[in-house]
Amino acid sequence: MSFEDWYRQDRLPHIYCAGCGNGTIINCTLAAIDQMGWKKEETVFVSGIGCSSRAPGYILADSLHTTHGRALAFATGVKMANPGLNVVVFTGDGDLAAIGGNHFIHACRRNIDLTVVCMNNQIYGMTGGQGSPTTPIGCLSSTTPFGCAETPFDLCELATAAGANYVSRWTSYHVKELEKAVRAGLETPGFSFIEALVQCPTAFGRRNKFRQVADHIEYLRSHSLLKAKRDRMLESGEKIPGDMFVVGELTRRHRPAMGVKP
Ligand code: SF4
Question: What counts of helices (H) and strands (E) characterise the chain?
């Protein structure tokens, strides 16, 4: 079987804008799932609301497209009712960290055996380009026309602090690394969180001087700081530029988890 067999071909073409990064992340996730050899009838996809949350609609398996921010509440119910199922959640930065923020920290704290893939486009794409909890300082959105003044959440730090067993961050540029990270998350019992920074040409890019999709992808590449390099810089006392973000496997541990397969 190939990862393409997981797609509902009759639902294509998709609704994503030209140049959107979400498709790359969905491909990476399905490729990792395919490598796991999971059966479709034992796998459930859950999402909330937003561009990222359209993903389960294109996948040939049982799915729940739920209410805004509540994907993790529904996914918790699915997993606790039947721990034998594989449960994967697709979400975005607004869905996960704003409306669903409490569900996020408590799912991490409970360390429920779910894999969460967050497509972080750093803005609300579907609903009009409003600033989200991850919009960087100074960036423009429809609610921050003079530049965002609020400190953004570091979603990976949040997941780690709240108790998730596996946490990693990559971008839509890092296709192979992301695929491996999702696979590692699927293999780790407990709560796995994979953040994927993505380009959103329609809501974020055109407001923030990324006129070409490639410009934004190049920005993601050139501002990624490998965790190993970050650690060396910290050891040597070297200053880390404020506009860089750390990528790589950030947490892997074995806290007691809930909902693990019998
Ligand atoms: Fe993708 Fe942004 Fe368009 Fe949504 S608004 S489909 S995130 S490019």
Answer: 8, 8
Domain 20-63+73-125+137-202+213-226+233-250 fold is Rossmann fold (3.40.50)
- Residues shown for the chain: 262
* Element containing residue 246 per DSSP (H, E): strand 245-252
Cα of 203 vs centre of ligand 1, distance in Å, is 7
pLDDT digits (tens, 9 = 90+) for 122-144: 999 999 999 999 999 999 999 99
CA of 90 to the centre of ligand 1 (A): 15
- Locate the ligand 1 atom nearest the alpha carbon of residue 17 and give its number: 3
Cβ < 6 A, ligand 1 pocket: 16-17, 20, 22, 51, 121, 125-126, 200-203
Task: Give the Å distance between the CA of 125 and the centre of ligand 1.
Answer: 5
126 Cα: distance to centroid of ligand 1 (angstroms) = 7
Element (H, E) at 193: strand 192-197
pLDDT digits (tens, 9 = 90+) for 48-91: 999 999 999 999 999 999 999 999 999 999 999 999 999 999 99
Per domain, the residue ranges of the chain are 20-63+73-125+137-202+213-226+233-250
